[in-house]
Amino acid sequence: MKLIIGLGNPGKKYDQTRHNTGFMVMDALAKKLNVSIDTKKFDGLYTKFKYHGEDVILLKPQTYMNESGQSVSQVMKYFKVDSDDVMVVYDDMDMPTGKLRIRLKGSAGGHNGIKSLIAHMHTQEFKRIRVGIDKMKHYDTVDWVLGHFSIPEMQLLLPGIDKAVDAIICWIETDDINKVMNQYNG
User: According to its UniProt record, which residues of this chain constitute the active site (predicted)?
Assistant: First the structure.
């Protein structure tokens, strides 16, 4: 079983904001796989389905970014998902818009959603796809991540979202994170 989590904030107010890049990837993934992430449970929206014989869960926590781990830990306990079968997609303002960085594990790096996951999962050992949202130096961090993408930024972001979707599908199909990292990092 694979659990793929996109991080973001719930509600119309946060739709298409930089901090909701994880949700945007999940929506694109769901569309490509022809599923809907619309079941409300575990403090989140999720769907569970079979893909190439593999059970897959897509999750969008609805607890706000800083408490994402609450939703994730509930899903992991209920479905008995091991942290080795978890992949988290989230924004990273230290990378250029639309660029990907895929990792096996790591620290939170200042990202509050990841801090919450580490606290609730009791491990840093879970796969991650960071999607770059850049950072304009003259902006306050909170204002920046909760701001909306400009049209030129979206033109950079959309190919990154598509690449993240392809990377996730590659991981589900091959269960080979090294192959995914070699093919999709950068």
Answer: 19
